[in-house]
Amino acid sequence: MSTGTGNPMDVIESVSGLQSRADAYRSAGRRIALVPTMGALHEGHLALVREAKRHADGVWVSIFVNPTQFGAGEDLSRYPRTLEADLAHCRAEGVDAVFLPDAAEMYPPGSQTWVEVNELAKPLCGKSRPEHFRGVATVVSKLFLAAKPHVAVFGEKDFQQLAVIRRMVVDLGFDVRVVGVPIVRESDGLALSSRNQHLDASTRSQALSLSRALDSAQRALDAGIRAVPALLHLVAVELDKAPAGRIDYAELRDPDSLKPVGNPLDAPTLLALAVVFMLPDGREVRLIDNRVLKPQPPGSAFSEKQP
Ligand code: PAF
User: Fold this and answer.
1) Same domain, 221 and 244
2) What is the pLDDT of residues 41-84, one digit of tens each?
3) Span from the CA of 49 to the centroid of ligand 1 (angstroms)
4) CA within 20 to 30 Å of 188's CA: 15, 38, 196, 199, which one?
5) How far is the CA of 233 from the centre of ligand 1 (A)?
6) Same domain as 173, residue 65
7) If you take atom 9 of ligand 1, which residue's CA is the nearest one?
């Protein structure tokens, strides 16, 4: 399928078509960077594309709203779909190819093969979305097998997803280098997310409670407070300022294992948040955000305040 603009960007719909392209690229000694997405592209995705360019000769973007990572009652049917704008963004960024499969291409009739990462998928988002990471790991494996990339680029906003994918790549021996890209935020701190487009003005302003909670915890750490209950209290105070929000989780975890951390904090620690916002029309939007908090090194000016 041609993009119809005279731009050389190809749009490929079949796994076999992408595999042939990958084989040709690789035979010519060219490096491929894949940016897997579900579309509704925003500046956060474009940052992934720009990072991908630094690692390869060709950047390929996949756009596929993966049904298996949505649970029953989640927002699959109303996940934003903005294909024309997405293709325009990709062209403008100099993307070489967009992979645009349909569900039957990714999950052939009778599909029954899954990729499951165990412990890392259980806490945080895995608690309320028990099948989510199985869907992610499965589709990302399929994308890797289709695109045969040297490098794959993912956003750190989905911190747990990145941890799951890194583990999967090691466990299954995928010859793919996984690169994480820092969260891109609006000027007021809101982390970019395709789901932000669902927010009305009032809920959007309440959604700032997530980044404010992260800031508040880091400020407290900078001031020498390292006690876990005190930090989580400060986080809850910020999140509670959003009356439309229901906290799904607000947790401090080891950034590598995602296991709970000891008290007080003595090493870089992931603060991960998920809040479900109720919109005025009764629909829900679930937003996540995170930061790896850095405690003051021992012996620094504020470390004496430590309880
Ligand atoms: O982060 C996303 O957009 C999706 O989870 C991914 C990695 C494209 C898999 O569907």
Assistant:
1) yes
2) 999 999 999 999 999 999 999 999 999 999 999 999 999 999 99
3) 14
4) 38
5) 32
6) yes
7) 136
Per-residue pLDDT of 72-95, as tens digits, reads 999 999 999 999 999 999 999 999
Q: Which domain holds residue 270?
A: 194-293
Q: Are 213 and 251 part of one and the same domain? A: yes
Pick the residue whose CA is nearest to atom 2 on ligand 1.
Answer: 37
Question: What pTM was computed for the model?
Answer: 0.95
Closest Cα to atom 5 of ligand 1: 136
Q: Angle, to 10 degrees, between the axis of helix 159-172 and the axis of helix 132-147? A: 60
Could you write out the DSSP letters of every residue in 77-90? TTS---HHHHHHHH
> What spacing in Å lies between the alpha carbon of 64 and ligand 1's midpoint?
8
- In this structure, the answer to whether residues 56 and 127 fall within a common structural domain is yes
Question: Cα angle vertex 208, ends 205, 213, to 5°?
Answer: 150
Which entry of 45, 89, 132, 198 is annotated as an active-site residue?
Answer: 45
127 and 171, same domain (yes or no) = yes
Any idea which residue has 């603060």 for tokens? 271
Residue 307 lies in a domain: no
- 15 located within any domain: yes
What domain count does the chain have? 2
